[in-house]
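step=predict obj=CDP-alcohol phosphatidyltransferase family protein n=108
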Amino acid sequence: DRVADIIIVGGIALGPLVEITVGFAAIIGILMLSYMGTQAQAVGAGREYAGLLGRADRLVVLVMVPIIQYFSEGYLDWNYMTLMCYTFAIVCTLSAFYRFNKIWTELG
């Protein structure tokens, strides 16, 4: 799962529509969110799925946004791919902190 996320979002980050720093910030957010869920299980708290933009949500967004970007070229000045990467970077990081807090209170 994580390798696929890196390949897909990394490919988007290396493309012409997204700045590479924004793309890699999105990758970092996605990886933090994924690892926070598995680390909960590793410390005995059970696998944690709480928060926004879980795996299934990200896959839907990763399918829909490029399609929207393709069909809106020339009509709208929005860069939906950049917006998607900013959203991944911010929301996934916040969700990772939410998972951390939930695990911390569960263990403490």
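step=describe
Residues 80-107 form the longest helix (28 residues).
step=end
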